[in-house]
Amino acid sequence: MYRQPRDSFEARIYTAEYRIYGNVYLVQAGGMADLLNTENRTHIPVTGALVYTAGLEHPPRPGDLKADTPFMAVNKSDLSWMVGGRPSVPKGNLALFERKRVALLFEGYILVGELDIHKNARLSDQLAVLKTFQTLSGAVLYRMPAQQPIVDVPPEQQFDFVTVNLSKPDTVIEAPPPASNLYLTLLG
Questions:
Q1: Cα separation of 46 and 14, whole Å?
Q2: Are residues 80 and 106 in the same domain?
Q3: Enclosing domain of residue 123
Q4: Which of 84, 118, 138 is the last residue in one of the domains?
Q5: Residues 39 and 63 occupy one common structural domain
Q6: CA 134, 168, 145: angle at the middle one, nearest 5?
Q7: Are 73 and 13 in contact (CB under 8 A)?
Q8: Are 50 and 18 in contact (CB under 8 A)?
Q9: Tens place of pLDDT per residue across the chain (188 aa)
Q10: End-to-end Cα, the chain, rounded Å
Q11: I need a surface site. Which of 73, 122, 128, 136 has the fewest CB within 10 A?
Q12: In the listed set 43, 64, 84, which residue is the last one of a domain according to the structure?
């Protein structure tokens, strides 16, 4: 039983093997990355869970449903990224942070958005010290079909924010400012 009151949020959790739709619970002042970065918890509780095959389609096709259960605990180390909850904000003096545009390359897709890092810090240095789970603001999802140039890829979905596991992307790239449209122009 939780010791503090919690707020319920619908969420979509993406792992390499599954898409999980269900409800997650956050303390009233906390964000999703705060919950996931809690070191003494290896799993995140999800209620009303629907488990689908891996993929990016939203909503998922009914034939992709593999299981439904009133409760499941998702191993945080398997979580690649998720939609839902509340964004986490940096701890400390907010004037010391800036938003850096990054592209996270996963197998078959890219998430592009803004990551809060210390001002004037190199991205590589920050990746070495940031906690594993971070909020990616203004996120855009792009599918990367084989044999198609990156500049021809249309956006698949847009999110106010997603929570990402920085240990899961194959590559993290510092991206240029966004172009006037949402098509990728060399990751911008």
A1: 13
A2: no
A3: 94-174
A4: 84
A5: yes
A6: 110
A7: no
A8: no
A9: 457 788 999 999 999 999 999 999 998 888 999 999 998 889 999 999 999 999 999 999 999 999 999 999 999 999 999 999 999 988 878 888 999 999 999 999 999 999 999 998 888 898 998 999 999 999 999 998 777 777 777 889 999 999 999 999 999 998 877 665 555 555 55
A10: 45
A11: 128
A12: 84
Is 74 within the bounds of a domain?
A: yes
Beta strands in the chain (DSSP E): 6-15, 18-27, 43-53, 65-75, 79-84, 97-106, 109-118, 133-143, 155-165, 171-174
For residues 71 and 121, membership in a common domain is answered with: no
Cβ atoms of residues 5 and 28 within 8 Å: yes
**Which CATH number fits the domain that encloses residue 77?**
2.30.30.100
Per the structure, the count of domains in the chain is 2
Sequence-distant (6+) residues with CB within 8 A of 52 are: 18, 19, 20, 21, 60, 64, 65, 66
Q: Residue 151 in contact with residue 176, Cβ under 8 Å? A: no
Does a structural domain hold residue 184?
Answer: no
The model's pTM? 0.90
User: Radius of gyration of the chain from Cα atoms?
Assistant: 17
